Amino acid sequence: MLVVVVLALLLPSLQRRRVSADLVDRREVNVAIARAQLADLEKRLADGELPDPEFQQERQRLERDLAVDITGTGEQSASGSGGHWMTWPVAALVPVLAGFVYLTIGTPTAIDPLNRKAMPPVAQNQSGEASPDMQEVIARIQQRLRQQPDDAKGWFMLGRAYMTVRQFPNAVDAIRKSYELNDSVPDVIIRLADAIAMSQGGSMAGEPEPLLQRALLMQPDNAQGLWLLGIAQNERASHAEAIATWERLLPLLQDDPQSKAEVTRLINKARQELDPSDAQVAAVKTEQSQGQQMTEFSEAFPQPPAGPLTLRVNVSLLEGVAEELSADTTVFVYAKAAEGPPMPLAVARRTLGDIPFSVTLSDEDAMMPAMKLSGFKRVIVGARLSRSGNAIAKPGDIYGETLDIDTGGEGEVDVKITDVVQ
């Protein structure tokens, strides 16, 4: 099996080559994650839980992911000649394995993502805890991050490890930390969106879709981003948008007929959900480039000629309303359009222990470049204590919101957290 071959190529090299400890750690983590997933696939096959065709498909995708991880990291190359023997055989795998990678790690399902069916636990024992191997991997990354807390790649790797053992809230926290340290890496943004969705039971509602839009503005041909964005759009019954997104994905799957057939099936299924007027919209959008679509979006929500807008938000809390919550409970402070898309125009994070506090929201806090605070005349400003740490409001969260306010006003607003989400 290719995973075994790649492991055989990589592990001795890691032992012999004089590379940086940082690079070795990341490659070893990639290998450990792949090994754990392969072992789980083989166990499910042996137990009769996974049909052989699905096993072959999952294994091939795992192989592709591993090959890309160890050859496409862009990290520092090894010094000396001891490790050069392995460069050409591993690199030669990349064209063969090109196509739709990363449909396994973190996605709710690789066989039928539209159904969002839960995957069986990966690399876990019967108690639901991470296997000893993965516990060691996670512990090693955590130890390194204690020494280098500003290592964005390290936080990303920790998030991937948590995704592998299905500890999704921990994965969200780790990948979000990587994103906060470096918000210009599309793959990090996409995996953050995926982790948030998984922490929500597979739902793409709320924060994931704006994150995916942001990533695709940076890298329009990111296959995983297009795949997940289409799922998010289809999930909220925007079938025309989903079709247009998946149509953009199809040309990227020329070397992966199986994935291309699956995406085509999803497009056809989404078309069946369209009414005639939506079908016409889908046909038009399919022919548009991403730039044209974003132009339409910007025209629908034009930016005013004035400079960037800032809002100073003073957050307070009704006495006694959150006594049972810990001081590290997440507080989301946000502004959203009074009329228009429900996604926030600007978001900031604090903790319960910070209250009372003031925070400034501005265009720099926008989740999408085309959806900025300065682009809307009237907004609603709010603050919410999130028991789960998720951006999506859930029953039991405590919040407060203003009435809609004019962004051309004084630029300062008071928000008092008083009410419980029912």
Task: Name the descriptors.
globular; alpha+beta; six-stranded antiparallel β-sheet; 15 helices; three-stranded mixed β-sheet; Serine Threonine Protein Phosphatase 5, Tetratricopeptide repeat; 422 residues; 12% strand; 9 strands; 3 domains
Summarize the structure.
Helices cover 48% and strands 12% of the residues. It has 422 residues and is an alpha+beta fold. The strands form two sheets. Strands 2, 3, 5, 6, 7 and 9 form a six-stranded antiparallel sheet that branches. Strands 4-1-8 form a three-stranded mixed sheet, with no helix packed on it.
Structure description:
There is one protein chain. The protein is an alpha+beta fold and 422 residues long. The protein has three domains: 2-226, Serine Threonine Protein Phosphatase 5, Tetratricopeptide repeat (Alpha Horseshoe); 237-300, no CATH class; 310-420. Helices cover 48% and strands 12% of the residues. The protein contains 15 helices and nine strands. The protein has helices spanning 2-16, 21-46, 52-71, 87-91, 93-97, 132-147, 152-164, 168-181, 186-199, 208-218, 223-235, 239-249, 257-272, 276-286, 290-300, and strands at residues 310-317, 330-337, 346-351, 357-362, 378-386, 398-401, 405-406, 412-417, 419-420. Strands 2, 3, 5, 6, 7 and 9 form a six-stranded antiparallel sheet that branches. Strands 4-1-8 form a three-stranded mixed sheet, with no helix packed on it. Helix 2 packs antiparallel against helix 6 (132-147), helix 7 (152-164) packs antiparallel against helix 8 (168-181) and helix 11 runs antiparallel to helix 12 (239-249). The longest helix is centred in the first third of the chain and has 26 residues, at 21-46. It starts with a helix and ends with a strand. Residues 1-24, 70-128 and 278-306 have low confidence and may be disordered.
